Amino acid sequence: MDARKLLGGFSELAQALAAAPDEGTRLKVAVDAALDLVTRCDHAGITVNENGRLVTRASSDDLVSRANALQTELAEGPCLDVRRDQDTLVSPSLAVERRWPTWAPRVHAELAVDSMMSLLVYTDEQSFGALSLYCEDGCRFDADDVAVAQALAGQLSVIMAAERQIDQLGLGLHNRNVIGQAQGILMERLDMTADQAFDYLRRVSSHSNRKVATVAAEIARTRRLPDAP
C-alpha cells in the first residue's frame, strides 16, 4: 500500500473510531481496518485477557476465537504474554516458534496460520486487551506490516483512553455520541489525535464556561471550530 493511500486509510479510521457509538462497534472498526491496512493480514481480532482467560471481543472470523481457545486450553500463547513481555509480540513463523512450543505448532497445523502478531491496546487492573493478527500459511508478516499494525494499535489505544475519560465524567450515551462526532471533525480539520481533540473541547468548555457536550454539539451541528484558548 502506498503512503498516500495508507495516510488516507488512517484518517478515515480516526474518524470512524471517534464516531463509533459504543466500544463494541469501535473494536469492530479496528478489526476491519487491520484487514484493510496491514497488507499481509488475513485474520484479525481483539482479545481481552481477564486474569488468564481469553475472550474474543471482535473478530473478522472464528479463527481468532479458535486460536484463543487453544491458548486458554494449553496455558501458553502470545495473548497471555503480551503485557508481561512487551507491547508487541511477533512470530514470523509459528512452525518453528519456540516461545510457545505446544500452541504454535498446533495453530500452524490445525488453523493453517504461518505468522502472527499480538499488540497491546489497553490495560487496567483486572484485564488487558490485545489486537491479534494472523497471516495464512505461506505468508509472513514483514517490518512494514508490524509498523502499520503498531500505528493502528496506538490509534485504538488513544481513542479508548479518551472514551474512558468521557465515561469518568458520567456523560450519557447521546452526549458521548455528539462528543465523538466533534472529535472526528477536529481530527480531520486540525490533524489532531482523538486525545488532543478531547483536550481541545475541554479547553473551549472551560474558557467559555459551557459544558463539553454543549461545545461538541455546536461543532457537530455547525461544523465550525471555536477558537481554543
UniProtKB/TrEMBL annotation:
Residues 159-220 form the ANTAR domain. Keywords: Kinase, Transcription, Transcription regulation, Transferase. SMART domains: ANTAR. GO terms for molecular function: kinase activity; RNA binding. InterPro entries: ANTAR, CheY-like_superfamily, GAF, GAF-like_dom_sf, GAF_ANTAR, WH-like_DNA-bd_sf. SUPFAM superfamilies: CheY-like, GAF domain-like. Signal peptide: none annotated. Pfam families: ANTAR (PF03861), GAF_2 (PF13185). This is ANTAR domain-containing protein. It comes from Nocardioides ganghwensis.
